[in-house]
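Q: How do we represent a protein-ligand complex in a form that can be generated cell by cell?
A: Start from the inputs.
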Amino acid sequence: MTFTEKQEYELLASISARGEIPVKFVYLNEGAEKWDEVYKQWAEKEGVTDEEMSLLLAHMDSFIAAFDNIEGLNLIDLGCGNGIPAARIISKLQNKGLKVNYVAVDISKEMLELASKNLLKEFPELDITHLHTDFEKNSLTDELLNIKQQTNYPNLLINLGNTLGNYVNVSAVLTNFLESMTLDDYLLLGNGLANDYNPQKIIDTYNIPVIVDTVTSPARSLNIYDDDDDFKYIWSTAKNRVEGRIKLSNNKQLTLAKQEVDLDKGEQVLVHHSYKFSEASLTRLLSDVGFRTELLTTNKNRSHILVMVQPTRYSVA
Ligand SMILES: C[S@@+](CC[C@H](N)C(=O)[O-])C[C@H]1O[C@@H](n2cnc3c(N)ncnc32)[C@H](O)[C@@H]1O
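Then emit the C-alpha cells for the protein with S-adenosylmethionine bound:
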C-alpha cells in the first residue's frame, strides 16, 4: 500500500497523537478489491448492504418526488465503493424516465475504476465523471457547483454503506457536503443504528476473516501489525461504536514523512470504527450542521436508517 506525502503526514499525526489509523486508508490500492470481496460476502448473507438497499428501493419514489419537475439528475456518489449500490439507484431513476449524470467521488483511484467498470457493464451509455479526492480534507464546492452549471440538473448527493460512521470528524464532513449544495439539491445518507438489542449482532457482522484482513491491511503495510499481534472487535458503549483494535505484542518502530514513530509493546492502535447513531442523535447532528430533514425512514428492526436532507436557510430559534 502506498501513501502520498500528505497522507503520510496525516498518518504521522493520527498514529502518534491518537493511536489511530483513519478508516479511509483501508480502500487504497489493493484495498479496493478487498472491499469488493467484503461487499459481496455481506450481500450474500443479506447483511448490511442488503438491508440498506431494500430500504432505499422501497422508498425510492418518495426520494425522487422530493425534486420538482425534473428532467434529470446529477447523482453524486460520495464514496462510490464498487458502484453496485449506485447501479440499482440509476436503474430506478432511468425507469422513471430521468436522465442520469453519474459522478463518482472517492479517495481511492482503484475504487473509482472498479465502480466505472461495473456501471459501464450495465449502462454502456452512462455519463460518468470521476472526482478523485479525500472529502474529509478537501472542499467539494467548486466541482459540484460546476457540474450543476454544466448539466442544469439538481444534484442528488448520496453517502451510503455505513460510511458516515467511519469518519474521524462527522460534523466536518457533513459541513463539507452542505457547503457544496444549493437549495434545490438533496443529500441522502444511510447508516447503521444502535439499539439496546443489537451491539453483539453488530460485532458479529464485522468479526469475519475478510473484514479483519481488510481493515488491518494499512497497519500491516506500515509494519504496525503482524501475525504475532492481537486484533479484536469490541463494542464501545461510551462511544456508541464498534471498534477494531490491534494490541501490539512487541515494540514497533516506523518511519512516516521521514520521521520515526515508536510504539510500545501492549499499546493499542484503533484501525476501524463504525459509529452507530440513534434516530434522535442523527437528526440532531444534521440539524446542528444546518440541514432540514425531508424524509427519514428505518427498517422494521431499526438496525438501519435512511435520511434525505436539504440545506436550510432558516435557523430555528
Ligand atoms: C464502506 S464503503 C461504501 C461504498 C458504497 N457507498 C456502498 O454503499 O457500498 C466507503 C467508500 O467511501 C470511500 N471513502 C471513505 N472515506 C473517504 C474520504 N474521506 N474521501 C473520499 N472517499 C472516501 C472509500 O474509499 C469507499 O469506497
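The chain has two domains: 5-32+197-275, 48-193+278-311. DSSP finds eleven helices and twelve strands in the chain.
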